[in-house]
Amino acid sequence: MAADTAAVRLLVVAVVALFFLGEASVHEYSGLGFHNNGNAFILHAGSEGLYAPVSPANATAEEENDDSAAVPDAFIRLDKITFKRPEEAVDSVKEASAATVQILVFEIEDREMIGGSAYGGQKAICCTSDLAKLGACAEGSVIYRPSKLNPGWPQLLVASFDGSDLIATLPSRTIPVRKTGMYNMYFIHCDPSLAGLEIEGKTIWKNPTGYLPGRMAPLKNFFGLMSFAFVILGIYWFYQYMKFWREVLPLQNCITLVITLGMLEMALWYFEYAEFNDTGVRAKAITFWAVTFGTVKRTVARLIILIVSMGYGVVRPTLGGLTSKVVMLGGTFFVATEILELVENLGTVNDLSGKARLFLVYPVAILDASFIVWIFISLAKTLSQLQARRLMAKLDIYRKFTIALGITVLVSIAWIGYEIYFKSTDVFNERWQYAWIIPAFWHALSFSLLCVISYLWAPSQSSMRFTNDASEKFDREDSLSLIRPRPIVSKNGWSVASTPDAKATKDINTVMTSFDEDDEENKRE
Fold it and tell me: How far apart (Å, rounded) are the C-alpha atoms in residues 132 and 116?
């Protein structure tokens, strides 16, 4: 009980924290600090995939390169960026006017253009005295070389402190994006006296189709298609449900809940992405409910598969002492998955994933593995019981169910291997345009398994014969057919052959009754 209470408290704290710390394509900076990297002090301001706008067929080269002609379709905008240095920094430095903060924006293919070294040693980000003597750069400035693949990039903007002023302001600036790529922005200063520098302001990143980050943009259409697919499945299921509502089993009610939750989850994700795309800010309330509905759906789906594998309602009327263990596993999975999904969706949306999130993946992976092992162990026992009792109709359904689960697990393992390969070989997120396929695949796979379950356990006229009561009846019939008839010996020494035939049974009852009556008469005499 104490563990469950602690887990719930952790979930509440995570929800509250993420509601306040979440970012969007409108990146806001407040209370963030610079960290030391070699001879530079760096703050990562954002990293997103941006698509180049489609140029009109009759556009001229001059029009395409004219940044001031109109607001570009894809851009990075720096809006009201201010830097505030502590008073101690002004007092300790005589040449206060020389302090500058530089904003570096570059496409990931140009990463080798950033930094340099004088004699082939360790690469430095800020220009050193040795490099300045060689004439390669100005001492105290960020080292970069112009890109050969992307003219005009990297772009470097500078905010300077005027005299003894405590605040340096960067004028609002819009940087148009003409080439598709993964763009990064860093705030950098090379002056140790600016320790404790504070930043305020925001940057806005926009694609031609809206404010959705590049890796997330295709998911909007995907969730629209998934919503339509769930509607089709819902129409089929609810038609069967209404048609045979008198024959509906508790298991089928649970499947109805999963389908309903899936419809709500996909619809909420679609509207959340549409709102995000229009405004650049995530609708946190919609995101929270989309995550929660999805987590509840995944938890209920796993519990349904587990109790079906145990033969609940088919070969056993209750789960007995396993009920508490099943509930505990389901509750723990819900809490762990909810926290992970909230961090993934309400945290920063930079296309550069944080390594700290990996810590939250392990509990979910372990719990998923526990579900899989328990499910297949239970399935093996249930199949053995059905085969021993010669319940062929149920055995056939469970075999199909086992095959579907086995294929799903094998495909999942293969996809996990591909996902590990994809992320381990794409350190700099250069394949960001295909990153949306990874989460989309999991949604498609779970929907496919739900379709199989909905087909195997769809409400029908024969639904009730798959209940535990029906199985007990079938057990008795199978037992009668397997037992060889043998004589019944009465207490008076008479022997009567036993047969399941109704007429023979009636004769046996008549004979036995007559002997019992004779005994009663003897007692009276």
Answer: 11
